[in-house]
Amino acid sequence: MTNKPTRCDIFCAVVDNYGDAAVCWRLAYQLATEHGWQVRLWIDDLAPLRQLAPDFAAGPVAVFPWPTPWPGADPADVVIEAFACEPPPAYVEAMASRARAPIWLNLEYLSAETWVAGSHGLPSPHPRLPLLKHFYFPGFAAGSGGLLRERDYDARRAGFDEAAFRAEFALPPRLPGELTVSLFSYANPALPELIEAWSRWATPERPVRVLNPGSSEAARSIGNLILQPLPFLPQRRYDELLWTCDLNFVRGEDSFVRAQWAAKPFVWQIYPQAEDAHLAKLDAFLAIHPAGAALRPFWLAWNGVGRLDWPEFAASLPGLEAQSQEWAKTLARPPDLASGLVKFCRERLK
Ligand code: TRH
After folding, report:
1. Atom 8 of ligand 1 has which residue's CA nearest to it?
2. How far is the CA of 126 from the centre of ligand 1 (A)?
3. For 12-29, what is the mean pLDDT?
4. What is the set of active-site residues?
5. Which domain CATH number covers 92?
6. With b meaning 16 or more CB within 10 Å and e meaning fewer, what string describes 200-235?
7. In the prediction, which pLDDT does 3 show?
């Protein structure tokens, strides 16, 4: 490899929600800031990115709307298509006509299923052109592509001032005995039942404050339960919210990973799929998590299987806290996804 910075194009087609843009931006930013790559992010919908990273135009990633028709662009050394979104056909043709074909990766969705490590890195030849695409699977297991985690994560956390965060968002200082919860979920039929359970469980000695980022509802109290909306926070500030809370409800892929780095007990609402395919993925994660057995009934109920038992789950929180810290340490040991991806490409660019 020459000393020139590696050029990388990331293609992102937003399906719905924030997750696709969230993962692509996180990876793009890390490749640029931590590995010195020159990254262009081609994204077909800028709306989620504007919320996740309002200052994205300041760099260091060059963000472009993904135009149709494709105007043509010189292919990069490394091409990452997120979630099998397929770069424009003319771009793929141009990839094949380079003197040296780019490293082409399909970054897949995260899953804890056991087949992931066996499929990670597998090549798939293009049916017509002299190009090879590799599957890049994020994952928890050795042999997978790992998880996104920034180098400065621990330093940011060490410098975090919870009191200042609360003051900035007009939250009163933590009340004695308060359980602070963040809530980020899909429309969930179990939510009214949970609100009801919280309102019955909360007492003056044990108030519950639920912070709901991105909610348009007005703040309200039911007895000693306080439901409080927050603005949708930029991605980095969302970490601060997770650090502030004792329990985090998260969803999808990226907030699910962030909750694990936050090392606090969390409840995951998985992205629902046809024919309940998501339940196998939920099970696979519970099977590898050291507190899986304790989490299982409440998590399943939050994902539509069985009834929520909040008092039982609340009783397990003190134990879950220590396990969450251990789990975060275990997950942080292998190389992070961006470093692993850089190594994967470097070996093939030699
Ligand atoms: O938005 P999501 O539901 O995205 C989903 C999943 O990624 C799913 O796997 C995918 O198939 C589907 O999209 C298309 O949840 P996710 O993945 O947690 O992404 C949300 C991002 O938003 C994450 O980076 C956290 C961030 N966020 C903020 O930055 N600020 C906030 O205030 C909140 C609530 C979230």
Report:
1. 252
2. 31
3. 96
4. 20, 253
5. 3.40.50
6. ebbeeeebbbbbbbebeeeeeeeebbbbbbbeebbb
7. 75
